[in-house]
Write a structure and sequence with these properties.
This protein is of the alpha+beta class and about 210 residues long. The chain has helices spanning about 1-20, 25-40, 45-65, 170, and strands at about 70, 80-85, 90-95, 100-105, 110-115, 120-125, 180-185, 200-205.
Length: about 210
């Protein structure tokens, strides 16, 4: 009886987990809603940026594993698009019509993506043949770089002190006055004998102490 009770209890737990576990589509929708909610917040601090990067990584990882369901866009009514075995391959695995759906897994280059049809045919398709475009959410997250936290405001650089600009009065040379020190020159005075004084003087008036 104990063994049977444990089996029944385990079965009930399994059923509970089966019914409560979200489908891949529901899980992706919840991740996308969470990302949109976080990205609409007005200010982004370190915690918010980390949460956005984590949510973006979870969305990209989920799409790479389960795919993202998109509709086909045929060039014109009645035409088909081809699923290739390899990018730019002449041979195709199957064709789809306008409005058919498939799963996009990842971007290979500027023109091709890896896809899977609803009947489990894996191949490659040009991204212009489905809706939405690669630059729309959430497919644009494949090319988005991780966000960085806003840099803290930096104080304005302090300019080094500058020497005061000399005023006009400071630029004007001082007038030489008697008794001030000037370049030594020959005295301008004359002796009683009629000869010019031979003494050197530093007086700015040009005369030695005697003249």
């Amino acid at each position: 009886m104990k063994l049977t009770g444990s089996v029944i209890l385990g079965g009930l737990i399994g059923l509970y987990l089966f019914w409560t576990e979200p489908t891949p589509e529901a899980h992706l929708k919840a991740l996308m809603t969470q990302y949109k909610t976080l990205s609409q917040l007005p200010y982004r601090n370190d915690s918010l940026v980390q949460a956005l990067n984590t949510c973006r990584h979870d969305i990209v990882t989920h799409i790479q594993e389960y795919g993202y369901l998109v509709p086909i866009r045929a060039p014109y009514s009645g035409s088909v698009v081809a699923i290739k075995a390899q990018p730019r391959d002449a041979l195709h695995l199957t064709t789809l019509r306008h409005g058919d759906q498939l799963y996009v897994f990842e971007r290979i280059d500027q023109h091709w993506v890896r896809v899977k049809t609803t009947d489990d045919v894996h191949g490659y398709l040009e991204h212009q043949d489905f809706i939405p475009a690669l630059d729309s959410f959430p497919l644009n997250l494949f090319d988005a770089l991780p966000e960085s936290a806003p840099s803290p405001p930096q104080a304005a650089p302090v300019a080094p002190p500058q020497a005061p600009t000399p005023t006009a009065a400071q630029n004007t040379p001082k007038q030489a006055t008697s008794g001030s020190s000037c370049t030594a020159t020959r005295c301008r005075g004359w002796t009683q004998s009629g000869r010019r004084c031979r003494r050197k003087t530093t007086n700015c008036n040009g005369h030695c102490w005697q003249h």
